Amino acid sequence: MTGPLRVGLIASARHPIREPFAGGLEAQTWTLARALVARGHRVTLFAGPGSDPELNTLTLPVHEMRLSEQARADVSMPHRDSLREHHAYLRLMLTLGRENRFDVVHNNSLHYLPVAMAPAVEVPVLTTLHTPPTPWLESAIQTCEPCPVTFTAVSEHTARAWRHVVPHARVVRNGVDTALWRAGPGGGVAVWTGRLVPEKGPHLAIAAARAAGCGLRLAGPVADHTYFTERIEPLLRGDIEYVGHLPCAELVALVGESSVALVTPCWDEPYGLVVAEALACGTPVCAFDRGGVGEIVTPDCGRLVPSGRIDALAEAIAEAKALDRSAARARAEAFCSVETMVADYVELYRELAR
Length: 354
Prior knowledge:
Blueprint: E1 6-10, H1 24-38, E2 42-47, E3 57-59, H2 69-72, H3 80-98, E4 104-107, H4 113-116, E5 125-129, H5 135-141, E6 150-153, H6 156-161, E7 170-171, E8 190-193, H7 202-212, E9 216-219, H8 225-232, E10 240-244, H9 248-256, E11 261-263, H10 273-280, E12 285-288, H11 293-296, E13 302-305, H12 310-321, H13 325-335, H14 338-353
Parallel strand pairs: 1-2, 1-4, 2-3, 4-5, 5-6, 6-7, 8-9, 9-10, 11-12, 12-13
């Protein structure tokens, strides 16, 4: 199949697809949608309320639940957000089952219903695996044999983690727009970016920066307020600073003027979009070697140390700072650019549409 493709792109219902992004998944969805449109494809984005109005977005039908007192008293009642999401995706998939206006439906959400209900949709359905295995999604894959959904994974690590139920997931790595994430001059203190939650380990980045005798600026949404109040705020003094949840342009400037980016996952990071963003800014990376991070970082653009080793991370900071910033930028352009990501997805879309 040649010519423009009609793509239905399913996004998160929980967070809007707009700046400043709630996390890497929202940023990647926004980047993918814009890049596909820029290349002439017709994209309809199904996303949560409040998403970027410049995207061709159909808001997912996320409605407030009006529950009786008796229903709310049920001890087995799931979280209200889960109920809202369930019914939103259910209505979406029922609608897609009645229509035939796309060449391919790309499920870029984390929800199980686009997989479980894929047999009701007449066009091919593609799902990207962004996380380690979850019980809801694993069970959805097994609701029919064989599962009609085609799967991609964001890293080799993630593909291996899902292999017991998805043996043939093609790896399509998340890409960053290297025209937006521009190379910066460096020279400043270290930087840490991402959601401020325990599994991302910003408290460990602070400890390593102190041990190395260098400053650190942290940027990102406070997704766990208790953790931030108890574990991060008490450490914010001197040259350790939290600068807030920044829009993209300010985040690019911050990362670009930093001498090194610290990446401290306390879980097996499925990909590590903050790594790709830092490299695109020419900023070398100093990271714990967990999950897919080691697939991006090479010796010429960063340093990897064993997970949780604050002492090793602190020692590696000076080495990472001394690396050639142009090599970091070149790694982003060659390995994790939006051009590579979109080319891989479009090739797969065309295969499925045929």
